[in-house]
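# nightly structure sweep
# worker-07 picked up a monomer target from the shared queue
# config: single-sequence mode, recycle default, output format = structure tokens
# input follows
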Amino acid sequence: MADQDATQSPVDQHPHALSIENAGAAEPVFPARHVAMAGGGLLLAGVALAAANMRPAVTSLASVLGEVRDSLGASTTWASVVTSVPTLCFGLAGIGAPLLARRMGINKVIGVSLAVLTIAMLLRVSDGPWAVLGGTVLVCAAIAMCNVLIPVVVKESFPTRVGMATALYTTAMAAGGATGSALTPYLNSATGSWRLSLATWAVVALAALCVWVPATARRSSTHQVAASTGPRRSLMRSPLAWVITGYFAMQSLVAYVVMGWMPEVFKGAGMDATSAGMLLGLLLLVGVPVNMILPPLVTKTRSQSSWAIGLAVLNLIGMLGLLLAPLSMPVVWALAIGTGICAFPLALVLISLRTANAADTAVLSAMSQSLGYLIASFGPFVFGVLHDSTGDWSASLIATMLIVAVQAVFGVIAGRPRTI
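# output follows
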């Protein structure tokens, strides 16, 4: 994400990089000795490889979810639980990651997470439905730790190149998700086994681990993580804080419904599995340029309400196309939805712009992301249950469109220029 002149970037103000709220005062979450010092090329490669692992484990399973479910004799309800795991883990990681990082150090937690990710991606294909579910929980817990901590490494290790390092990080993350979705169906066809096709992604995690360990083995921090020593006010009674939390929750819910279920929706309309996976890959790939250019554009406008409306309208167009004529222009629907779910960087920008100081930004970001992801975890589950109850995807798509409409309302209110 590009650097901002007047306002710190949302990545720079990530709550877990700043502080946590205690009984009346805040202390540094990450002591200086735990963060990597100014990084070089090997660490930058480690960051990129780690970021590339944050989505394939989720999108690869989504692209062959129907085959996995049928092979194991599992229900759609089981599949709904599996697709809800990522957002649930991401919400809980907002609590667990800072605590572990303070005890073990950021670099070590990320290294252990990559090791767990590698092993868990093999464990989840070793047996039946419970192994897949349990392995997915471990996979997403490991990803969640990296999700929270790698932006801190980016900020502290590349203080003069934050924009460049963040762009590399977000691009690798989006490209990894797109590749996981697009390539897994081909691997499934080539090997004749969904287990082998999913297990292949453990190699990418192992590669990241092999680079991360030597890149951080002898690094200690020379940068003190910013922290406020004064009392912190709670934002639980702020209506605007809850509106921003609602916007973050709704956009996350829609995004993980799309990543978890869109291939199944296309296949339900008669599309083959490979093409459906490729469409999800295309849908995610469009997020690479959009996520890079949207934040600086958004910060140049006084109000962000129109951006929230525009993204929601694109999402609604794509969803309506899936509902009424899914195979007429599937690429158009995928591109519209792929652009629409890029509300995530807008949500991060709103967290920064609607607060007057870094202390409030940290508290609002912790509130909106932790609660938002926990709320969003219900979306993929309900999407699948509605399909199980009705026998088609119409009710699920209509419910998702209603959520997008609610997201737009939250976005209009949150986008008005004022601070908490």
